[in-house]
Design goal:
The protein is mainly α. The protein contains 3 helices and no strands. The chain is 58% helix and 0% strand. Helix 1 packs across helix 2.
């Protein structure tokens, strides 16, 4: 019975993570579609945090924002970049 409970918890956590990943991907798509010509990573992080109700992207436990595939594709941050530049368009 314990193994079954553990499997159920693991499946629930994996499903929750997949839903969160899809949710964040939708946030990115919405943000970037709305700001085709002028967007910053800092503004994107603030938008995602506002939508998800958190203080920082790290709280979502989805890995570094700079490593996210959408951020890599859209912003092409330098590999040496370790912090998000605090440049805003507003």
């Amino acid at each position: 019975m314990r193994a079954h409970t553990h499997t159920h918890t693991h499946t629930h956590t994996r499903t929750h993570t997949q839903i969160l990943e899809a949710d964040i991907d939708i946030c990115f798509s919405t943000y970037l579609a709305d700001r085709k010509l002028a967007a910053t990573i800092a503004d994107l992080e603030m938008y995602v945090c506002k939508v998800k109700g958190c203080q920082s992207y790290e709280q979502l436990r989805m890995g570094p924002l700079l490593s996210h595939s959408r951020v890599q594709r859209y912003f092409a941050p330098l590999p040496s970049m370790t912090r998000i530049p605090q440049v805003n368009m507003r």
